[in-house]
Amino acid sequence: MAVTALYLEVVRALDARRRALGWSMAELDDRAGTNDGYFAKALHADTPSGRQAGWEMLDLFAQALFPTGTRVAIAPAFRGLKLPAPANENGPAEQLPLDLDIAGPYCSLRSWYRRRRPPRVYRVGGGRRRA
Fold this sequence. Notes:
This protein is mostly helical. It has six helices and no strands. It is globular. Helix content is about 40%, strand content about 0%.
C-alpha cells in the first residue's frame, strides 16, 4: 500500500514536536507505550524497512507529545497557489506585501518554493547513484 502525503505530513509534524522537546525516538516509544523502534518505522514508512502506523498508534504518539490535547487544521498546499489580482490600478511596487505567516521570512511564495529542501530519496544500499 502506498504511503499518502497526508500520513507523511502528520508523522513529520509529530517528529518536529519530538525534536522540539529534545526527546529521542526511544523515549517517545516509551512514553507512548509502543514497541521499541515503532516510531522510527512509522516515520520512515516510505522506505523498504518502514511500516505505516494506524491512526490509533499515531494518536498514542500525539497524546505523549501533547498531553493537553491537540487540534488539527488542514490547509491547502502552496503548489499552484494563485494570488488574486489587486483591486486597484497600482503597480507591483505599491501592492500590499504578502502576509509573513504564509510566506515566512522569504516574503514571497516563489522564493520560498525555491529554497525549500527537496525530499530525501532512500535507495537500497544507500548513497547516490552514479550514471
